[in-house]
Design a protein that fits this description.
- The chain is built from 15 helices and two strands.
- By secondary structure, the chain is mostly helical.
- Strands 1-2 form a two-stranded antiparallel ribbon.
- Helix 3 packs across helix 10.
- It is globular and about 65 Å long.
Amino acid sequence: MASMRTILILAAILLLLVAVPPFLGIAWQNALVNVLIASLFALAFNLLIGQAGLLSFGHAAYFGIGAFAALHLMIAVEDGFDFPTPLLPVAGAAAGLLVGIVAGYFATMRSGVYFALVTLAIAELFHSLAPHLQGVFGGESGVSSMRMPWQGIVFGSIIEVYYLTLGWVLICGLALWTYTRTPFGRLTLALRDNEQRVRFLGYDAHAAKVIVFAISAMFSGVAGALLAISNETANYSLFATDVSAQVVLQTFVGGSTVFFGPVVGAAAFTLFSFLVSDLTRSWVFYQGLIFVLVMLFAPTGIGGVVQFHARHRRQLDRSRLAGPYALALLGGLLIAG
């Protein structure tokens, strides 16, 4: 029954994602594109922290690499190279995978805080070098291109970009979920829980972590490529620390222990910035405040809280929960206001 209920909920959400956007304004359609991209980026990041227990502070490196790879392929298509526009994110996936293998090989030589610092250093390396590598990253102005028509689809409107993004996010999300159900996905959980025991069982823990890192970087590259297709431009700011920090916040607020938790966090933060950024310049402060409150009072994140309530709905005393939830709702409304 529980699995059937979950399937019905997911089907209803998918129906809304497909049917509602054409009736929204351009601003809301663009916001939903950003929600989808942030969701995929958070899911890819959570493959490291949620599955393997590896906290990366520099995942913007692979997000940015994917964006620039897609833009260079778009430029080649503009110049006459025959390549389907819907498959442009493949370039981001390939670039993210390649760079992820190299970076992951060195980063996973260490664990804990040292791993996090190495990943941060790699992202900062890209951020520092990108303005000086004109041929690859376009210098200060970045790289720009245009979406080219394919099979009668112009890709000139944001709604066409939305459905392209939705298709890729659904495929990649399903692939990541399937990965968690494979034997190697179970081994990834074992790496998180007890790496030493994995070594005793005869597995190469370092090689396994490199593979997980590379897969995470690959899907991050797809997310970056989708952003490049949407914006038709990118510059070195994609490698900045705040891009890496944003995905960390989204994942933990949404809940890294639940597969769809990062999607909840990404959607909440992206829509929050869309709605509140025009009302106040301090919207980043409120995002940080929300993160602190969630970590203090709901460390498993929004997804963890929802999962707990779903599993223990019959044992919960709803009369005792009404007060705290009303207070939380009031606080959310005050922050939004």
